[in-house]
Every structure is written in C-alpha cells, then in structure tokens.
Design brief:
- Helix content is about 40%, strand content about 20%.
- The chain folds into 2 domains: about 220 residues, P-loop containing nucleotide triphosphate hydrolases (Rossmann fold), CATH 3.40.50.300; about 220 residues, Nucleotidyltransferase, domain 5, CATH 3.30.420.240.
- The protein is of the alpha/beta class.
C-alpha cells in the first residue's frame, strides 16, 4: 500500500509539546516510571527536532504497546492543526498493524475524541489535520511514498528485515530529520533491533545522550505484583534459560544456534525409574510416534530388493503423573517408560502391531503421530482404528518450532524423565541423539531442532517431542456429579 501525501510542512521547535500541559500531565500520570522515562526522551527529541533514533526493549507484557499508543495520542493532539504524519510499521499487517490501529482508536475514544477522529484508506487515522499512518513491513508491502514528519516507529523491530527498513522506511524521515523509535524484545544477535541497539550504545558512550532503553522483567515487576506472579509462573514452566524466557523476559539475545540440549538439560532429562514392558494398573499412558519414510524398492534382474531408508519408526510411551506437578505447572510430569524402534519395515507391516500396542497393550489416552508426507495415511489409519485419541501432527516450520520450545520447557521444568540405563540399543541411541541434537534460531521467535544427517538420526528426538505434545494435550476426565 502507498499514500502520496502533501509536501512536507516544516516542524518548528516549539512549546506545542509540553510535559506540563493538562493533556500531557494526564497521560504521563497514567504511565509507569519506566514508561514515562522513555516518553519524555522521545517527546523531547520530537519537540526540539533532534532527530534521534531510539531503541526500546521492554519485557513481554510490560506495556510497550500501550506506551506507543499513548505517544501517538499525544502527538496527534499537539499537532492536530497541522498536516503532519507519524508513521508506524509492524512485521505484518494482520494481526500486528491492525492491533496497533485498534489500540490507538481506543485511546482516542478514551481521550474524548470519539466522533472526531476518522479513518482514511483503511490504514490511516486522522485527528484534525494530523495523521497516524500504519504500514506493514512485510517484504511484499508497497510503502514507498509516505513521509514521516513527527515520528517513525518500527514495532517488533527484531522481526523487520534490515533491507526493508533501510531502503523503504528509514528514507521516510530523511527530509524531516524525524525521530525514530525501534520497539521490541531481543531475539538473536543478527536482528535489526540488536543492530540499532549496539549503534545506540556506542553513540551513548561518545556523547552521553541516552538512546537505548532496556527494562527486563524484574524492573517491571517492581511496579506490578500481578506481573511478578505471572512471570514467576512462566519461569517455572519454561525454565530460566529457555530461549523464549531468555529473550522475552530477561531480554538477553541468543548467540546463534548450537547444541539443542546443554549438559545441564541432559542431566535433568535422566530419570531413576525403571523401564517397563507393560502397563501398571491405574496409570495413564500417552505416546509419540515418529514415522520413517516408506522403504524404497530397487529393481534387480528379476527381483525387487528392499532398500531401507536411513531413518526409523520410533514409538515412545510415557506415563503421566499429575501428582508431581508444582504450583506453577499445569501440564503433567511424563516418565518415559518404553521405546519401540523399527528400521526398514513397511508401514503396512506395522499397522496391526501399532494398533495392538497402542490400543490393547498400553491403552494410550493420547497419541500424537507424525502425519507429514507419507505419514499422513498412517495417521489416518490409526485414527480410524483407535479413534480421536490419535492426533495427527504435521511438521511445518512454525509447528516444529512450537514443538521444540515445548520440549525444552518440559525438560527445564523437570517434567520429563528418561528411564534408567538398561544397556539396551534403544537407550544408547536415545542419548546419542540427545547429545547430537542441534538448534537453529530464526526470525520471528522461531527455531529448528534436528540432528545433522551426517552425524546420525533424530527419530528418538522427534518421537520424544511428540510424546510431550501428547502429554500436553491430554485432559483428565473431570468427575461427574451425582
């Protein structure tokens, strides 16, 4: 989308933005101390036409979006008699840009502007002559032609392309010396936000002007007891060093990829219970199934020769225990008690065996099965044979990312334990894969986890992740009244 606006009016340094005005005092009074600190620095740069670029990291749910909306409200109010624009971009139009627009509309209504502000072209909010223009930073979005006079905001800057920003958004404020704000939470050390942050820190060392604002979860919790309780629950659920807790709450960037499970996590995963070949009375069992690709056939002179693929079908059986859950844990603890491992066997040959083991032997309450590619008909067969307890799982990039984060959360929280060493091939292969597993962190807070094919397999690893998914999806039957 694009919008050709009128020639840039001059924005003269003035007393129009005054922290002592009734409107400013009302809005600033509603802000928490750390929000007010950021707001005053930004408003000073705008009113004095300093053209500073700020980077703001606030822990998740710490009020970043609310602060942005309140600043937009102030600027539209102060400059409503002038045809000036502020521009805000988000990584996606839906839902992020739309949510930002809705929030500003609510703040305008709260301020008594209901029926006064208008929407133009579906992505512009106008108050008097001043406009707030909301744009998508998606690669395909056409944003050229817009000018930012008052403020240029880059929301969730860690998810915005560096090239898109440099070529299409940054030039919007070139002729107006616009103040720019990069909002977000950290991710890895390659993002736009991290680049701007490092530049700002270097500039601060040179001239002493603060440009980077960082408020992690303990700082926010000082002003909100409910937030403290919530984040402590997330820390217990995810673990202090879980990638999401590390970046979203502690605001510490991930330094590239590397090993998926550290030594501490591998130690946490090791349990003391014995492997079990059959179910115990009154226990609840779930299963995760990673399916091998179908074996291929090679044409010989007059025979068809079975050529097994490198990967295997692995079934991991887990026993659920809700009694071991801590105060912050909603999901059950999972004891890995059995593994089945088949290499080079056709899916058709495994059908009856899988059904018997899952349905008749273990009476599995929830079964999550790889339904990607050739796994889809197997998952459909099992669902027809066993029922809704079977949940097909397709390995898309976002779905696998969630699977990996959930697996890490279960290990970090001490909810997942492997049976004690029994000298079996399954036990040895399981720990080989855990040690060889790698992680790769991508933009938009997503990850991939895997074992390099040159090193080995990841069948036990994926089956384990699917087991955790099965445990998380299981819902105990609630007692019925008389």
């Amino acid at each position: 989308m694009s919008s050709e606006m009128s020639p840039s009016p001059s924005v003269s340094p003035s007393a129009e933005i005054s922290s002592s005005s009734p409107r400013s005092e009302l809005i600033l009074h509603q802000l928490r101390p750390y929000q007010k600190e950021i707001a005053l620095a930004i408003l000073d740069s705008v009113s004095r036409k300093r053209g500073l670029t700020f980077s703001v990291e606030i822990a998740r749910q710490g009020g970043k979006n609310e602060l942005s909306a309140q600043l937009e409200l102030l600027l539209l109010t102060f400059y409503m008699k002038k045809p000036l624009n502020l521009v805000k971009c988000s990584p996606t139009f839906k839902p992020q840009t739309v949510i930002s627009m809705m929030r500003l509309k609510d703040r305008l209504n709260d301020a008594g502007y209901s029926g006064i502000w208008v929407t133009e072209m579906g992505y512009i909010i106008r108050l008097g002559k001043a406009r707030a223009i909301f744009l998508s930073a998606e690669e395909s979005a056409n944003v050229v032609g817009n000018t930012a006079h008052l403020l240029l905001e880059i929301d969730e800057s860690q998810d915005v392309s560096k090239e898109k920003y440099s070529k299409e958004f940054k030039p919007m404020g070139a002729t107006t010396n616009v103040t720019t704000v990069h909002w977000g939470t950290t991710w890895d050390d390659t993002t736009l936000l991290e680049e701007v942050k490092q530049t700002n820190l270097e500039l601060e060392r040179r001239d002493g002007i603060r440009r980077h604002f960082r408020y992690d979860w303990p700082e926010i919790a000082k002003h909100n007891p409910d937030y403290l309780a919530y984040v402590e629950g997330e820390r217990a659920r995810l673990g202090e060093d879980h990638p999401l807790f590390l970046t979203q709450y502690r605001l510490l960037p991930i330094r590239g990829g590397g090993g998926f499970l550290g030594r501490e996590q591998q130690a946490q995963l090791q349990g003391e219970h014995a492997r079990r070949r059959q179910p115990a009375p009154g226990k609840v069992y779930v299963a995760g199934i990673d399916l091998a690709g179908e074996a291929e056939e090679e044409e010989g002179s007059h025979l068809k020769v079975l050529k097994p693929r490198r990967d295997a079908t692995v079934v991991t059986i887990g026993e659920l225990d809700f009694s071991l859950c801590g105060a912050y844990q909603k999901q059950p603890c999972i004891k890995i008690i059995e593994h089945y491992w088949w290499t080079g066997q056709r899916h058709a040959e495994l059908y009856p065996r899988l059904v018997d083991l899952l349905k008749n032997v273990w009476h599995s309450r929830k079964i999550v099965v790889d339904a990607t590619g050739l796994g889809e008909p197997v998952a459909a067969f099992l669902r027809n044979a066993i029922g809704s307890r079977v949940v097909p799982f397709k390995f898309t990039a976002p779905a696998k990312s969630d699977l990996g984060f959930n697996l890490l959360a279960a290990i970090n929280a001490g909810r997942l334990k492997m049976f004690a060493g029994d000298g079996s091939p399954e036990y040895r292969e399981f720990w080989t894969e855990m040690a060889q597993a790698k992680s790769y962190y991508r933009a938009s807070q997503t990850m991939n986890f895997y074992v390099d094919p040159a090193q080995g397999h990841d069948d036990f690893l994926m089956s384990l992740a699917l087991l955790v998914e099965a445990g998380n999806r299981y819902e105990p039957r609630s007692a019925k009244g008389n």
